Amino acid sequence: MINITSTTTEQQQLLKEGKLLPIMEHFYTIQGEGAYTGVATYFIRLGGCDVGCHWCDVKDSWDAEKHPLTLADDIAEIATAQASIIVITGGEPLMWDLTYLTKVLHEKGARIHIETSGAYSMSGEIDWVCLSPKKTMLPKDDVYKAAHELKCIIFNQHDFKFAEEQAARVGKDCVLYLQTEWSKREKNLPEIVEYVKENPKWRISLQTHKYLDIP
Ligand SMILES: C[S@@+](CC[C@H](N)C(=O)[O-])C[C@H]1O[C@@H](n2cnc3c(N)ncnc32)[C@H](O)[C@@H]1O
Ligand SMILES: Nc1nc2[nH]cc(C(=O)O)c2c(=O)[nH]1
Ligand code: SF4
Ligand SMILES: [Mg+2]
């Protein structure tokens, strides 16, 4: 767990127990990426990430201190009132102990998905794990094992090689996706199309929410 300095002793304890979490934003939308593209889902975005991807599309999430500490019980109540599939993302959500949040969400009947770089070990009970590995902080072994979906971001040519290395680390039933880095999409998409035609174990994932101009 990462340290948030401006907190009381009581808040520190609740953070440690996963009962309090820095929440950047939460919103009901359509899953834009990967295996559940097009499905109505409620997103909970946790603050805090030290992986440092230079092309990250949510850099405001990185500093956990900027995001209000919120009770897991409260966010679970709000999220489950609106949707039955909840995506926990960030920031890097596995920086936090998700045991308590996922227990409460499951008690309320939700199905829980996560978007993670895998840089920290799994916590909590998660029904669908989307692993998006990063070269700067490779995934932990337990996250490779837990992954249902591997989503590799293509920024440059070398990323195809990295994607193959990562595909060799996940289980045989893990679904494999290549997703262009958004700012490089015009150059990369034709190359990704050709790559998938030649290597059909891969599928293409697009950030469809950006085309739809929704959150
Ligand atoms: C913002 S991250 C948050 C979750 C976690 N930190 C991770 O990286 O998986 C959510 C997803 O967006 C992807 N992503 C972030 N910036 C992107 C960009 N500029 N273009 C394409 N995908 C991006 C990440 O690789 C990840 O799959
Ligand atoms: N609609 C929508 N789909 C998404 N899939 C993964 C996202 C993320 O930022 O984790 C995301 C997001 O931010 N919005
Ligand atoms: S790991 Fe995820 S949140 Fe962190 S910098 Fe990379 S894309 Fe952004
Ligand atoms: Mg996003």
UniProtKB/TrEMBL annotation:
Species of origin: Faecalibacter rhinopitheci
Keyword 4Fe-4S: yes
First-level EC class: lyase
EC number: 4.3.99.3
Residues at which S-adenosyl-L-methionine binds: W55, C56, D57, G91, S132, P133, K134
Pfam families per the UniProt record, alphabetical: Radical_SAM
Subunit structure: Homodimer.
Swiss-Prot/TrEMBL keywords: 4Fe-4S, Iron, Iron-sulfur, Lyase, Magnesium, Metal-binding, Queuosine biosynthesis, S-adenosyl-L-methionine
PROSITE patterns in alphabetical order: RADICAL_SAM
Cofactor: Mg(2+); S-adenosyl-L-methionine; [4Fe-4S] cluster
CDD domains: Radical_SAM (cd01335)
Binding site for [4Fe-4S] cluster: C49, C53, C56
Function according to Swiss-Prot or TrEMBL: Catalyzes the complex heterocyclic radical-mediated conversion of 6-carboxy-5,6,7,8-tetrahydropterin (CPH4) to 7-carboxy-7-deazaguanine (CDG), a step common to the biosynthetic pathways of all 7-deazapurine-containing compounds.
Binding-site residues, substrate: I30, Q31, G32, R45, T89, P215
Catalysis: reaction(s): 6-carboxy-5,6,7,8-tetrahydropterin + H(+) = 7-carboxy-7-carbaguanine + NH4(+)
Protein name per UniProt: 7-carboxy-7-deazaguanine synthase
GO biological process, one term: tRNA queuosine(34) biosynthetic process
